Amino acid sequence: MSGVLRLGPVSRRFSPRDAGIAAALLLLVAVLTLLGLSLGERPVSADRVLAAFLPDAEALDRMVVVEWRAPRAFAAAVFGACLGISGGLFQALTRNPLGSPDIIGLNTGAYSGVLCVILLGGSGYAAFAAGAVGGGVLAAGLVYLLAYSSGLQGFRLIVVGIAVSAFLSSANSWFVVKANLDEAMRAAVWGAGTLNGIRWPQLLAAGTAALVLLCVLPWLSRRIAQLELGEDAARVRGVRAEPVKAVLVLVGVALTALVTAVTGPIAFIALAAPQIARRIRRETSGFDAVGAALVGAVLLSGADLLAQHALPDSALPVGAVTVCLGGAYLVWLLFAENRRS
């Protein structure tokens, strides 16, 4: 049993099971966000967390919850959703579970862009965002041009992306070695991938830009579904494959770059979130923006809680936690695939 949800020109087919899964994931995001607001050196109970957002809240609770913890907790959910959608877009483009921004070099390109900004003396979210978007777009353009041969093939794109990522990683290491100590320290801290120090202006700027980009998703989702039938079939239906792929790449790069500009490169989320969403829905293919976004939000929110509280008296960069989770996930995936074969 299924139905169709319509909102103006946008429609989406859903089943009660899909709606239940989405509701459960949304509830899990809310619980993780509440834990992010509650836990810390000064624990705050759930009722006081909610009261802290009211106009007559206690001053200390308001400062701790609203000014210090809320931007980080909400950023983990929003940025995780952006990374999940970006990974889903690239996996739909390449038709390969390894097609994600951190595999095909776009994270590394965004890192290169921000490194250039740092080495030129720039600072602040606007400069970092411009550098990240510029670096990510240039890396995507380079991968696209090198991988293009009578059309864009997914496997070729991944192989070229891995090569470009390796080259950019070497260049980034060379830049850091040649930089002075202060610049090298700034690059190292930012390059670890962290949600430390996020404040409301950064979150609102990145969230607004992401919201604008997400307005393209209904248009993209319909065309991705048609491309999955094959480019010839899509062309018969009036879909021009290469322009759609170019828009898909630009939106995916921009979503990744918006996050990278604030947090630094965060691996694994874009790779795993769309795959986990499909496994939960028991689907083998297809682009599920809602599922990828919610799973991405759960993964990054959970990873950030681990980064803050897993070790006593020591906070880890969230990027280090996601790399460890990503390694464990890939090992599990390898064993699962071996059992099937």
TrEMBL record:
Entries under Pfam families matching the protein: FecCD (PF01032)
Protein name in the entry: Iron-enterobactin ABC transporter permease
Keywords from the UniProt entry: Cell membrane, Membrane, Transmembrane, Transmembrane helix, Transport
Keyword Transport: yes
Membrane topology: Multi-pass membrane protein
Organism for this UniProt entry: Brevibacterium salitolerans
Entry keyword Transferase: no
Localization annotation: Cell membrane
Protein family per UniProt: Belongs to the binding-protein-dependent transport system permease family. FecCD subfamily.
CDD domains assigned: TM_ABC_iron-siderophores_like
Chain ranges passing through the membrane: 70-93, 114-147, 153-177, 198-220, 246-273, 315-335
Main location: membrane
